[in-house]
């Protein structure tokens, strides 16, 4: 058996050697005849000779002079191509179907189809570029927008005409036409880049983004039309997707430098809209009315910006949009604060006026608080809308498509898988790192890992609400402050008696609270009736503003059933804090002055108790004022050091 196998192997090698010798003889014969055939210029005969030489060459791969034979054959193919080129060009220009089919067969036989495609491209490219120049020359008064529309309409018409013609000449016309259009768009003279640059300069910075959107919509219509046409002719050939992507990249390439500046363009557009929102008026009521009207205008501007982002960037610029919106809202909050400062100045808050008590001012401050609440509510709604829009606009690219010619592929250069998301993003974004960051951001949104995309904006709103609450608080607190400021300088604190009576031995209940503290008490007692008409009503915006805009002297906590209670608590604590600080400014207390101060303190504590409010803040001061000299030191050791030291000095008690 082994002998038979060896004999069979020897037989096979002998046959291969015999075939090689025959092919070598055949090659020699064909080589000798080919020059004569070329002289006859019989194209079919020349082609037949070259095809025969190609077949012979396949059997001579292992021969020593194989490379020389290849070079000789290539020279002969070049010679045939040179002979044919004028006729090929003429056939393509004339769109002669019969002639081009003949040449396509010849070029395919001699493995030169790629060269034939180049001839086709060259003929069509000249015509299309000349058509572009003709558009500009004959329509010089038109804009770039009109030129581009006209040219893309012509390209689309050319596609539909040529795809039918090419289908009868080439086996797979789709990548041939896609590559042709890609070359044409890149080589236009003047280039699309130059035309766009001039056009944008003519339009002015305030409408740059709108101008770009209008142009991009023209390009997008053309791109989608081509994509639909490719889909109609689609086969499993991966060249379709590659060539289409290259074509679409060339279509959108003109916008990439501007897409990288989208954040700036959007900031300019939003700032123009903010400049058109009037917020100031001479009258306080009118200024606050303008602030109220600005809320809907602000949200309308943000929604328009969202639409512009989708129109210009297909959603791939959302990260830039979020940055622009952040700047927009921060600028608005800055303007709001400026108006608030002007309103505050007109209210003269902080100045001591006898006739200051004007509850209409508090009503206006409450209206501003409501506006803050509306801003917070609508900003949070916008936040949710943006998240939904981002997911719906970009999330679809993570879903497999059964029909789109653009599918996940492998990058030729890197060998890495390129997702559908990355393919679409690459049309508009130049930086691969930006694409990866955006892709990760969208995936996190889909997974619910990013609950907010406007967190920095809402934080600014919360700060704004806090400032407006402080404004409302100051209006109410001004009356109390007026009575308490300066009480430390009253002569009663160093007096030895009340009138003609020596009071050092009189009991404390024989003294009456002084006018300054009774006015404070009376004002506090009227607050519930004054506050309730404004705050007790069920107002979601006011409640939301209060939740996120802490009143002075209150801590973060749940809002009580009636927000008026929280206002009372804030004002009461503010009163106690200010009163405590004023007390600590008293330079000296006589025994009579001490008893009088205790009487005043007891009165205030009783008022607060009647209002259902805690007076714990005043407890330490009362204890230190009531303590006998011999009890003071052990008591002071348990008290805050500053408080104990100051009161000991007032009362001339050594620690």
Layout of SSEs?
Layout: H1 2-40, H2 43-58, H3 66-94, H4 97-109, H5 113-138, H6 144-167, H7 173-186, H8 192-203, H9 208-232, H10 238-252, H11 256-259, H12 262-275, H13 284-313, H14 318-347, H15 359-394, E1 409-410, E2 417-418, H16 420-428, H17 432-447, H18 455-484, E3 497-498, E4 501-502, H19 515-535, H20 540-548, H21 563-583, H22 591-610, H23 619-626, H24 629-636, H25 641-650
Antiparallel strand pairs: 1-2, 3-4
Helix pairs in contact: 1-2, 2-3, 3-4, 3-5, 5-6, 5-7, 6-7, 6-9, 7-10, 9-10, 10-16, 12-13, 12-14, 13-14, 13-15, 14-18, 15-18, 15-20, 16-17, 18-19, 18-21, 19-21, 19-22, 23-25
Structure description:
This is Conserved oligomeric Golgi complex subunit 7. The protein has about 650 residues and is an all-alpha fold. About 75% of the residues lie in helices and about 0% in strands. A two-stranded antiparallel sheet has the order 1-2. A two-stranded antiparallel ribbon has the order 3-4. A hairpin with a 6-residue loop joins strand 1 and strand 2. Helix 5 packs antiparallel against helix 6, helix 9 packs antiparallel against helix 10 and helix 18 packs across helix 21. About 0% of the residues have low confidence.
């Amino acid at each position: 058996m082994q002998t038979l196998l060896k004999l069979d192997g020897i037989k096979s090698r002998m046959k291969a050697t015999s075939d090689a010798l025959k092919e070598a003889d055949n090659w020699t014969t064909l080589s000798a005849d080919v020059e004569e055939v070329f002289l006859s210029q019989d194209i079919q005969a020349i082609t037949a000779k070259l095809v025969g030489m190609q077949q012979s060459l396949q059997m001579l791969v292992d021969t020593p002079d194989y490379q020389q034979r290849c070079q000789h054959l290539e020279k002969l193919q070049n010679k045939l191509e040179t002979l044919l080129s004028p006729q090929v060009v003429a056939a393509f220009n004339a769109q002669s179907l019969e002639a081009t089919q003949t040449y396509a067969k010849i070029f395919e036989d001699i493995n030169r189809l790629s060269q034939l495609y180049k001839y086709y491209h060259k003929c069509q490219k000249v015509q299309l570029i000349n058509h572009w120049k003709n558009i500009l020359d004959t329509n010089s008064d038109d804009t770039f927008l009109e030129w581009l529309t006209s040219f893309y309409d012509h390209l689309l018409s050319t596609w539909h005409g040529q795809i039918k013609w090419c289908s009868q000449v080439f086996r797979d016309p789709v990548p041939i036409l896609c590559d042709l259009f890609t070359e044409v768009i890149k080589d236009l003279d003047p280039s699309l880049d130059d035309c766009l640059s001039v056009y944008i300069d003519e339009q002015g910075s305030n409408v740059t983004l709108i101008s770009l959107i209008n142009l991009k919509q023209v390009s997008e219509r053309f791109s989608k039309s081509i994509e639909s046409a490719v889909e109609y002719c689609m086969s499993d050939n991966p060249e379709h997707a590659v060539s289409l992507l290259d074509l679409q990249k060339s279509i959108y390439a003109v916008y990439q430098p501007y897409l990288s500046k989208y954040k700036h363009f959007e900031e300019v557009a939003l700032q123009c809209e903010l400049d058109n929102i009037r917020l100031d008026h001479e009258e306080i009521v009118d200024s606050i009315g303008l602030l109220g009207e600005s809320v809907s205008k602000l949200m309308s501007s943000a929604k328009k910006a969202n639409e512009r982002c989708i129109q210009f960037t297909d959603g791939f610029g959302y990260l830039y949009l979020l940055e622009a919106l952040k700047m927009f809202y921060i600028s608005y909050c800055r303007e709001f604060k400026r108006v608030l400062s002007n309103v505050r100045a007109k209210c003269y808050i902080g100045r001591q006026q006898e006739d200051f008590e004007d509850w209409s001012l508090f009503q206006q401050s409450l209206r501003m608080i409501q506006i803050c609440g509306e801003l917070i509510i609508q900003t949070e709604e916008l936040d949710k809308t943006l998240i939904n829009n981002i997911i719906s606009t970009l999330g679809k690219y993570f879903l497999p498509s059964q029909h789109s010619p653009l599918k996940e592929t492998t990058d030729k250069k890197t060998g890495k898988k390129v997702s559908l998301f990355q393919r679409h993003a690459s049309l508009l974004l130049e930086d691969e790192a930006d694409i990866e960051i955006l892709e990760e951001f969208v995936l996190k949104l889909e997974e619910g890992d990013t609950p907010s995309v406007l967190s920095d904006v809402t934080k600014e709103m919360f700060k704004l609400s806090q400032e407006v609450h402080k404004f409302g608080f100051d209006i109410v607190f001004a009356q109390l402050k007026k009575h308490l400021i300066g009480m430390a300088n009253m002569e009663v604190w160093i007096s030895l008696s009340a009138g003609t009576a020596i009071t050092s031995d009189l009991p404390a209940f024989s003294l009456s609270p002084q006018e300054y503290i009774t006015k404070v008490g009376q004002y506090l007692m009227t607050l519930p009736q004054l506050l309730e008409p404004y705050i007790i009503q069920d107002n979601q915006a006011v409640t939301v503003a209060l939740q996120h805009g802490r009143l002075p002297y209150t801590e973060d906590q749940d809002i009580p059933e009636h927000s008026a209670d929280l206002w009372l608590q804030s004002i009461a604590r503010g009163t106690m804090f200010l009163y405590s600080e004023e007390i600590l400014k008293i330079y000296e207390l006589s025994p009579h002055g001490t008893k009088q101060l205790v009487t005043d303190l007891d009165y205030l504590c009783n008022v607060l108790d009647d209002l259902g409010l805690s007076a714990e803040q005043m407890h330490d001061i009362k204890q230190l004022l009531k303590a006998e000299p011999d009890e003071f030191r052990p008591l002071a050791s348990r008290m805050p050091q500053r408080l104990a030291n100051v009161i000991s000095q007032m009362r001339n008690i050594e620690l």
